[in-house]
Amino acid sequence: MLRSAQNGFAITMMAAGANSPSPVGNVRLREGVSRDVEALRRLINAAFVVEQAVFAGDRIDDLEVRAYMSRGTFLVAEGSGGLAGCVYIETRDDRSYLGLLAVQPARQRTGLGRQLVAAAENLARESGSRAMDLRVISARGEQLSPFYQRLGYQFVRTEPFPPDLVAKVPSHYILMSKPLMSFR
């Protein structure tokens, strides 16, 4: 169930469908704001801890969260215990970029990530985007590519990491994209 509010987002996400191993429960989806920076950093770093096999240290710090906020939008899923998940959307001309999809480890595999992606796609459509792009690291491609493929994303190409991104093991980006059909 989606419910728009005049000031940004106030979307209530109901429990996931029967395909989910356990219900999501009610969470409120809203636009992330500056008071969320610390909670976003903690959430993203907890969800991305699996990438420490590829990269040293945390995935993001407070300054990077603020920099993302200045360029795009975080949608945050907030439950009774705080932030349960988030996704970042950045509009680039007639395309949008989806990144930093993060769900609290205890709530992963409940459908919340899928619901966050759907909300991000709706936001992108509303901004006039005709496609949503994303990238995953190849070291996690076997896990993440099938998830995104089930959501309609298709492989586009691979790209090397930028020179300033040092990986512990050989890896690269896998770029995926999905056309966004208008609701009009």
Could you please describe the fold and organization of this structure?
- It is a single chain.
- This protein has 184 residues and is of the alpha+beta class.
- The chain has a domain at 11-132: Aminopeptidase, CATH 3.40.630.
- Helices cover 25% and strands 30% of the residues.
- The protein has 4 helices and 8 strands, in the order ββααβββαβαββ.
- It has helices spanning 37-47, 62-71, 112-126, 141-150, and strands at 11-13, 27-31, 73-79, 82-92, 95-103, 131-137, 154-159, 173-179.
- It has an 8-stranded mixed beta sheet.
- A hairpin with a 2-residue loop joins strand 3 and strand 4.
- The longest helix is centred in the middle third of the chain and has 15 residues, at 112-126.
> So, the CATH homologous superfamily of the domain at 11-132?
Gcn5-related N-acetyltransferase (GNAT)
Secondary-structure element pattern, one letter each: EEHHEEEHEHEE
Which term fits the overall shape?
A: globular
Query: What strand order characterises the main sheet?
Result: 1-2-3-4-5-6-8-7
Assign a percent range to the helix content. Answer: 25-40%
Provide keyphrases for this structure.
disordered N terminus; 30% strand; 8 strands; 184 residues; 4 helices; Aminopeptidase; eight-stranded mixed beta sheet; alpha+beta
What can be said about this structure in brief?
This protein has helices at residues 37-47, 62-71, 112-126, 141-150; strands at residues 11-13, 27-31, 73-79, 82-92, 95-103, 131-137, 154-159, 173-179. It is of the alpha+beta class and 184 residues long. It has a domain at 11-132: Gcn5-related N-acetyltransferase (GNAT) (Aminopeptidase, 3-Layer(aba) Sandwich).
